[in-house]
Amino acid sequence: MSEFKVKRCRPIRMELRVPGDKSISHRSIMMAALANGPCEIQGFLPSEDCLSTVNAFRAMGVQIEELDATKWGPTHLRVHGCRGEFRSPDGDIDCGNSGTTMRLLSGILAGQKEGFRARLTGDASLTKRPMRRIIEPLARMGANIRAEGPGDTAPLVIEGARLQPIDYQSPVASAQVKSAILLASLFTTGKTTVTEPVQSRDHTERMLQYFQVKTLRQENHLSIWGGQTLESRDFEVPGDMSSAAFWVVAAAAMPGAHLRVDNVGLNQSRTGLLKILIRMGAQITEVIDHSRCGEPVGRIEVHGGRLRGTTIEGADIPNVIDEIPVIAVAGALAEGKTTIRDAKELRVKESDRIATVTHSLRLMGAEVEEFFDGMEIQGGAHLKGARIDSHGDHRIAMAFAIAGLHAEGETVITGTECIRTSYPGFEDRIREVMAAKNKDNHTPVIKSLNPATERES
Ligand code: S3P
After folding, report:
1. Residues enclosing ligand 1, CB less than 6 A?
2. Would you report the helix, strand and coil content of the chain in percent, each value rounded to 5?
3. Do 197 and 58 lie in a common domain?
4. The domain spanning residue 177 has which CATH number?
5. 249 and 146, same structural domain?
6. pLDDT value at residue 444
7. What is the pLDDT of residues 163-213, one digit of tens each?
8. Is CB count within 10 Å lower at the N or C end of the chain?
9. Are residues 212 and 92 in the same domain?
10. Residues 336 and 422 occupy one common structural domain
11. In what helix (H) or strand (E) does residue 38 lie, and over which residues does it extend?
12. Using an 8 Å Cβ cutoff, are 318 and 198 in contact?
């Protein structure tokens, strides 16, 4: 098991780019494979999760060329779309740690021709995560899908079937559930509508539109007409807001820090963290420079200072679902109390994030009360270094590395391999931040951290 050590750093002064957005990278491969010709994808995130999606489609006969790569893996790909007609894979499709691969792929595979068969497996964490949430609506559409694991968990076996459109009221605000249904609906000949309790991230619908598929949004209802063909087009993936989040929190809570993140996706369904930090007193500006392939892209600038506690609940939650571990760290660094409620979805992420965050914050000296759907953190404690187990969860590893930059003494993060599922290169950035110092007691500005420049030598 790999680990790394983190120590308190001087005020961060950094200009960086983060690797490609994970949600969008997965979808770019899926949409391109569904399209009617070749699509080039630039800015692709070469992380283990996204490579699980690439490997899945390769195993089903889709030709995917690698046109450029960093030391972590391919960032520029050409996918030869085959109008969504795939061949049965020879062996199991291993989705690794990736819930997005398993759930969205299930929607696509459910609509394959009769005779198609695939079995989707995953790692120890993924095979514990709930799959009933996609099995139930897909089965209602006529899908032939069954779970082999206890309590409707993976492995999933999917056989091709004729699907019908549905009108589905989702009990959870989940982009993965919504997307699985939308992708399955492409294989029907009618109108499918998905209604969510609160709107989740909307990349699937934006990307479908970009690939010339008509959808209609009316508040929380999203409708799509089956039988449409995705027109092959090139696509560029913006930087991942959820990866930028770690640096934004690190700088926002650090007086004297200055951070600028360029080329980051600023889709409103993903930037809830910025609003919450501003509510906590952070100095943050967000500038949308342009729209690229249907997604707003721009920069974030942060001037560090003191934060104060806040309450995060209700409609806030879906927008920050992946950022809550690092928001909890911000809460521990802030003055006053931070309360997080209505977030029981966190219990079924890559780890039980309510339990892992509560436990890890306590190890670092913070006072935290755990609720079934969240936690209450008494801010202002001086965090001290501790040994923090990632529990195989990338966002826990990275959130507590950020806590370590603010803590007294040494923090050791163990089980750090999982970081490669979403942010290859994160550990290098942490090392640069800790190593940088100059005579003003500041880090010199760290520049040109463009993941695209990390060529293999
Ligand atoms: C994702 C949706 C969210 C998020 C996950 C990525 C996606 O999951 O937590 O990291 O790409 O659609 P849920 O749909 O389970 O909320």
Report:
1. 23, 100, 174-176, 179, 201, 321-322, 345
2. 35, 30, 40
3. yes
4. 3.65.10.10
5. no
6. 56
7. 999 999 999 999 999 999 999 999 999 999 999 999 999 999 999 999 999
8. C
9. yes
10. yes
11. strand 38-42
12. yes
404, 405, 444 from 9: Cα distances, Å: 9, 5, 12
Residue 83's domain spans which residues? 22-221
pLDDT at 156: 98
- Look at residue 438 in the predicted model and tell me its pLDDT: 52
**Residue 436's pLDDT is what?**
79
* Span from the CA of 149 to the centroid of ligand 1 (angstroms): 21
Alpha-carbon span 341 to 232, nearest angstrom: 42
**Which of 176, 206, 324 most suits a substitution to test ligand 1, by most atoms within 8 Å of the C-beta?**
176
How many domains are contained in the chain?
2
Q: Each residue of 322-370: pLDDT tens digit?
A: 999 999 999 999 999 999 999 999 999 999 999 999 999 999 999 999 9
CA 32 vs CA 5, 80, 316: distances in Å = 40, 7, 32
Q: Report if residue 66 sits inside a domain.
A: yes
Pick out the chain residues at pLDDT < 50: 439, 448-457
Q: Which of 190, 221, 252 corresponds to the end of one domain? A: 221
